[in-house]
Design goal:
Layout (H helix, E strand, L loop, with lengths): L1 H12 L6 E2 L7 E9 L4 E2 L6 H9 L4 E5 L4 E3 L4 E12 L8 E11 L4 E3 L4 H7 L5 E4 L8 E4 L3 E15 L3 H4 L6 E4 L3 E4 L7 E4 L3 H10 L3 E5 L3 E4 L2 E5 L7 E4 L8 E8 L6 E2 L5 H10 L5 E3 L3 E3 L7 E11 L4
Antiparallel strand pairs: 1-19, 2-6, 3-5, 4-5, 4-6, 7-11, 8-10, 9-10, 9-11, 12-18, 13-17, 14-16, 15-16, 15-18, 19-23, 20-22, 21-22, 21-23
The structure holds 2-acetamido-2-deoxy-beta-D-glucopyranose (NAG).
Keywords: Signal
């Protein structure tokens, strides 16, 4: 009984078990998962399949992006949250050497930012050693260009803005990564060893990231080289110059929304335990009548409705339009 309570508390401490959609990549576009157009957006009628929508948007210079329902949009775009939907916005940021560009993105940052109102934040950031990032507002906007020397905290959608993160400053820029939740100036503490938790230092961020990726028992890694195996007890968000990536509880499956710790107990239409999970994913993706699957290799022919708690389960629901 004590063990069960311990595990429940642990889940409550690190509460990032939200449903999350893995949007398949699309060249020339930046994906915004679990988002849809605001009602004010000028969008076309849905017109699947997705491949037709990509070429329609590519060949129309007024098209700013499309969604997984097959709508294209023009003009000004604001987004609202919608689980199971993907927004793709046309890439707009020109390449600057030494930086990675995030399209239509703004950041909130730590205690201080450094503001720059002349026209060349790229040059200014390059000559200022502590500069870790800068952003450029849309042409003609009255917004200031901004450079930052302190940890960035969170990234959000802002049409027309480009955020440039300086390569080699990942501990401070803490950019979002596929399959993980990013936590700025944070380190992860394990639970007691009795619960099977252990951590180690791999000697560098890149090695820690790789070690965590290939080990299914890894729950988090940090830019200081730490890898966490087994449960995370708490996150200490007072650690300067460290960014921690907590692994999503369900591995991302492109085209599906993952629901951690939830199942639909009634409506599964078939099960094939001879398959491994990767094969179950492939089989469901390729079969247009398959609307979802889970880690038990159950399949659904109507959209599952994962609302029943089941610890450790991942239920995958086909995202709209895939
Ligand atoms: C932003 O758009 C540019 C230009 O299309 C592209 O090269 C870059 O990969 C995009 N960035 C992201 C993070 O998708």
């Amino acid at each position: 009984m004590a063990l069960v309570v311990g595990i429940l508390l642990l889940l409550a401490t690190v509460a990032c078990n939200a449903a999350k959609t893995a949007c398949p990549r699309q060249d020339g576009y930046q994906a915004f998962p679990d988002m849809t157009w605001d009602s004010s957006v000028a969008a076309s009628a849905p017109n699947p399949p997705a491949s037709a929508v990509v070429s329609a948007c590519n060949s129309d210079s007024s098209c700013v992006g499309f969604n997984s329902m097959g709508q294209t949009a023009t003009g000004s775009v604001t987004l609202t949250e919608e689980i199971g939907s993907c927004i793709y916005m046309k890439g707009i940021c020109e390449y600057h050497e030494g930086y990675t560009a995030y399209n239509h993105t703004m950041v909130t940052n730590g205690p201080f930012g450094q503001f720059w109102d002349t026209s060349d934040a790229y040059y200014a950031c390059g000559t200022d050693e502590p500069c870790i990032a800068f952003h450029l507002p849309p042409a003609g906007s009255t917004h200031l260009q901004m450079m930052s020397i302190h940890s960035l905290e969170s990234y959000y959608f802002a049409q027309g803005f480009c955020t440039y993160l300086r390569d080699g400053r990942e501990a401070l820029t803490c950019a979002p990564k596929y399959g993980y939740q990013n936590h700025a100036h944070t380190s992860a503490e394990g639970v007691e060893g009795a619960y099977g938790s252990i951590s180690g230092n791999m000697g560098g961020a890149a090695k820690a990231e790789m070690a965590c990726k290939v080990n299914p028992k890894c729950t988090a890694w940090a830019t200081d080289g730490t890898v966490q195996i087994g449960g995370i007890g708490s996150l200490d968000d007072n650690v300067e110059e460290t960014c921690t990536y907590v692994k999503d509880p369900c591995p991302p499956m492109p085209g599906f929304t993952a629901y951690p710790d939830l199942t639909d107990t009634v409506t599964a239409s078939s099960r094939d335990t001879s398959l491994c999970v990767a094969d179950a994913y492939k089989m469901c993706l390729d079969d247009v009548t398959c609307q979802g699957f889970d880690l038990m290799r159950k399949f659904w022919s109507t959209k599952p409705n994962p609302t029943t708690s089941q610890l450790g389960m991942c239920t995958y629901v086909r995202a709209t339009g895939f």
